[in-house]
Description:
The chain is of the alpha+beta class. It has helices at residues 13-19, 60-66, 82-88, 92-110, 124-141, 150-155, 157-180, and strands spanning 3-4, 24-26, 40-47, 52-57, 75-81, 116-118, 182-184.
Amino acid sequence: xxxxxxxxxxxxxxxxxxxxxxxxxxxxxxxxxxxxxxxxxxxxxxxxxxxxxxxxxxxxxxxxxxxxxxxxxxxxxxxxxxxxxxxxxxxxxxxxxxxxxxxxxxxxxxxxxxxxxxxxxxxxxxxxxxxxxxxxxxxxxxxxxxxxxxxxxxxxxxxxxxxxxxxxxxxxxxxxxxxxxxxxxxxxxxxxxxxxxxxxxxxxxxxx
Length: 208
């Protein structure tokens, strides 16, 4: 949730920030918070008609929300001294510190190989087929009916050869996925926007 600068009156806030508090207007929103100097605060003043709302932009998700081009309300982007902005926005320093700590914890966790899990380069339909086959064969081994008599399935040589080939193919797939295809498990929900972005490509075939 975005915090707001605490300024009296409903209007004239942009003029006060520019004239009284030394804010500097930007031509538009920055590409990211990494473009904001560490001693500056990014402020976005939105003209709501009856009043002006000066939002204190602390996280990347807030930046993306406030820079949404589908929102056509007039807005002005400002940079101002961080200390001044913090005094005008009680709780901003604590909120920023908490967010930065979370960034550091998640970055550290994502750096360890024990956060990796094997994933399959296979279609969902292919995986569902394999799951269905495994369950069907397991049912047969339990003596349950699977559309034909279980005892006929177990005694029919051709059916047993087909089942054996299926199980070998599934085993080879699982073996391949476990050996080569790995990807870091990263939570990229709204509270982890700093880790958002494209995942790295899968490793190529062995020997390439």
